[in-house]
Hints:
This protein is of the alpha/beta class and 894 residues long. The chain has 33 helices and 30 strands.
Amino acid sequence: MALPMLSFGGSLISHSFNRGPFPIPNTPHSVRRNNLLPCQCPLSLCASSRSLSLPWGRESPSSTRIRASITGVSVEVAVEEKEKRIPKGETWSVHKFGGTCVGNSSRIKNVADIITNDDSERKLVVVSAMSKVTDMMYDLIHKAQSRDESYVSALDAVLEKHSSTAEDLLGGQDLATFLSQLHQDISDLKAMLEAIYIAGHATESFTDFVVGHGELWSAQILSLVIKKNGIDCKWMDAREVLVVNPTRSEQVDPDYLESERRLEKWYSLNPSKLIVATGFIASTPQNIPTTLKRDGSDFSAAIMGALFRARQVTIWTDVDGVYSADPRKVGDAVILKTLSYQEAWEMSYFGANVLHPRTIVPVIRYGIPIIIRNVFNISASGTKICHPSIIGDEDSLNFKNYVKGFTTIDNLALVNVEGTGMTGVPGTASAIFSAVKDVAANVIMISQASSEHSVCFAVPEKEVQEVAQALQSVFHGALNAGRLSQVAIISNCSILAAVGQKMESTPGVCATLFDALAKANINVRAVAQGCSEYNITVVVKREDSIKALRAVHSRFYLSKTTIAMGIIGPGLIGSTLLDQLRHQAANLKEEFNIDLRVMGIIGSKLMLLDDDTGINLDKWRELREEKGEVANLEKFVQHVHENHFIPNTVLVDCTADSVIASNYDEWLRKGIHVITPNKKANSGPLNEYLRIRALQRQSYTHYFYEATVGAGLPIISTLRGLLETGDRILQIEGIFSGTLSYIFNNFKDGRVFSEVVSEARDAGYTEPDPRDDLSGTDVARKVSASAQDFMQQLPKFDHELSEKLQDAENAGEVLRYVGVVEVTNQKGVVELRRYKKDHPFAQLSGSDNIIAFTTRRYRNQPLIVRGPGAGAHVTAGGIFSDILRLASYLGAPS
Ligand SMILES: NC(=O)C1=CN([C@@H]2O[C@H](COP(=O)(O)OP(=O)(O)OC[C@H]3O[C@@H](n4cnc5c(N)ncnc54)[C@H](OP(=O)(O)O)[C@@H]3O)[C@@H](O)[C@H]2O)C=CC1
Ligand SMILES: N[C@@H](CC=O)C(=O)O
Ligand code: NA
């Protein structure tokens, strides 16, 4: 057995090292645990299997069978070998659980359940140490080598954490066996830490040996819990199988051939359909324990996936999958269903916490998909990272498929080396970057234009001064001679990268990205795109980083029918509309790709502005109480329209205020759509109305007001349909007022007029000011100063109206308040008329409106629209359908 490289001296040399890299007594356990070298000759298989008989998890192979296999009984050997060879391929699924997934006993149990419920034929589970344990283990080393005696109590805490977890989960013989092993390990570690304490130093292999215990314990506990679920399960100390070669730069390269050979051997001794293996740890070809470095468990799982030619490798973590952008920065970030290996690679490289890029390398070889899933939300299907051919054409018509994700890296500086002396001079770039290498700075992006006049590159801010000094010194002569004009530092920069495999050969992606940045008023300092076209990198000012990320994300990810809404006037109609939006929003998004976001709600006194992605309509009333601020219409409009990257804005005016209506032209001019049930803008001077309509057409915005006539009834749209298709209106006659309809439908059987008006008001049919409903607003204004006053004065009219009613009844007629537009004579009349009891206008009930269009096409029989023409629900419904009409004009599917 090869001896480890140790740097211990003096008395420690006298320890026995022949079993491993550490000076611990030769207990039977340490022999087992550290006899990592599987022997090369067939005979030694027997020897090594005997010595490897572990008391937990692993069953010794039958010695008879092993002996038979080495005594040359060839037929038997063949049968045995065949049976025990790993059935590689599709049948295996690999699962990897990180530290948080096995952070305490209930989580370990949850993991055991997930494994138990996976119906794959064969399963390999790779497990990290319980959360915080690896840090605790590193801390032990740190304490011991800095001669801090508290390593002893820190080791006790490690013991306590694992023994209490085991006691929670296990019982009987399993618990006893595990605890005895744990105590043995702790006592071995204590001896080793003591040695480190005395030496004041720990070699890398000692450190790796100590820290790897977290995985040994979690794998044993998990395998015993799974066994408790009634499933046969073996645990694997991956150091017996995974062989890696250290490289420079804190990385290791797996030796697949040797690992595969050892795995075959391991499996022949431990055939099982369910194996729990330690993540993170491995051994060198010389059998010295080592680790796959930080985040190495994902790498372990990927290597195991490759060794087993697994069907898939699932990395269980605590997020639902890979997001299209950092969800802490972009509220709209979505979970990506699929990513190609290349995309995942680029995303992780560019700062997204996806997977370490090296995790992908082992699985690419065999095209094994990696799935990222949330252990705390198993209903989420996660993100599948696989070969692009498997991704297929799902969403292929969707532009967002071209750019999958966006990432940012902050705290960077640009270095710009500039001067005419660089043009056509070979070796300048080499001189620049070798100077950078000499100060060990990491170059994150490079850009050089074809004029060769300047080379610009990004490095971490903390390294930039050293880089600049190195360059000043290397190019001292060139700078003095003027061949180089400057070595400039541009501090406070961030990188924004857009990643997507389908960007390759797709025209317009760059243009869209830059257009989004330009519209958000963000200056781009430098750009880089490799010819692979998987990644476009731009450098922006640090303070613009989040704004830039949101701008580009919205451009690619929000559907073009995402609409930012500002609701003005959350009174009866406005609040009913908000309730309807709340109920329908998810369905609209799901079925029609219409994404409505209420970004602000303003009343006459208070306003509520959203934080980022829209107000939570489940509790807008409470939020208004908690977070409402003093109403300020200008600020409100600016917030709703300008403070985000949603492609469309609509203001919905649910007031009856003419001052609010006087703003429509300005809003339309700014590109804001307007929808309203407020009649003020349409019922003033005709010129005003025509001006708004003209402006709206010029600015390519929409102005919809269906609810201003007959509430939700399709009156404006019917009229428009008739006119736009070339029909000619001859007359429109009808009962246009829900309030008056209600009043005259119920003003009978000896009832008093004022009482019926109050009833209409209570039912929500009247205007905020009921004088607007009753004919002769002028008359009303003459007799009263306010709406309340008017209601008090109203009984004075009871007598007069009772007489009119009586007269009509005596003649077998009813009273109806109608409006008539006679187009041919250019005449409009609004008056109280009497109709025979069998006339359609006499048949109405409740707040019904009835409108009869007599046109050239509908000359003999008018086109009639009839139904409730007032009330909160039907009015809000009318506004809502205008909002959806807007969405469909903007491109929503029908
Ligand atoms: N009721 C119905 O059946 C129909 C109504 N309509 C129209 O719907 C509109 C709303 O009616 P309704 O909901 O019943 O009225 P409400 O009086 O219940 O609500 C009006 C809302 O407008 C707000 N408001 C008033 N002035 C301003 C201002 N300057 N700035 C911001 N907010 C303001 C009020 O805020 P605050 O509470 O803070 O004062 C209140 O929230 C009216 O234009 C009406 O003509 C149209 C068709 C049918
Ligand atoms: N107050 C109005 C409501 C609809 O416009 C009416 O009564 O019709
Ligand atoms: Na209508």
